[in-house]
Amino acid sequence: MHLVFATLIFIAVIVVTVIIFGGWVVVTLIRTIARAISGPRTAPVARQVSYGPPLARQQLIRCPQTRCMADNPAGARFCRRCGQAMEAGRVRKVA
Ligand SMILES: [Zn+2]
Q1: How far is the centre of ligand 1, averaged over its atoms, from the C-alpha of 50 (Å)?
Q2: What mean pLDDT comes out for the span 50-71?
């Protein structure tokens, strides 16, 4: 009788685990489908806003380091990629 009771508890635990995991799988699938429907372009734009103002419509200055040539915001004092001082080159570029 004790063994039957233990087996029932064991089965109940398995059922609960399957229900929880199944719910998680369903939620994940719904989220994935919703993202696919809404389009993957909305997520990167939202991430870019969190980093700061979008650089596309800003005035950009190019890094004077010839090996780097990274675009930086117009007010930057140092290159964000290589750390080169931006005042040395003053290579301006209007985006
Ligand atoms: Zn640089």
Answers
A1: 23
A2: 75
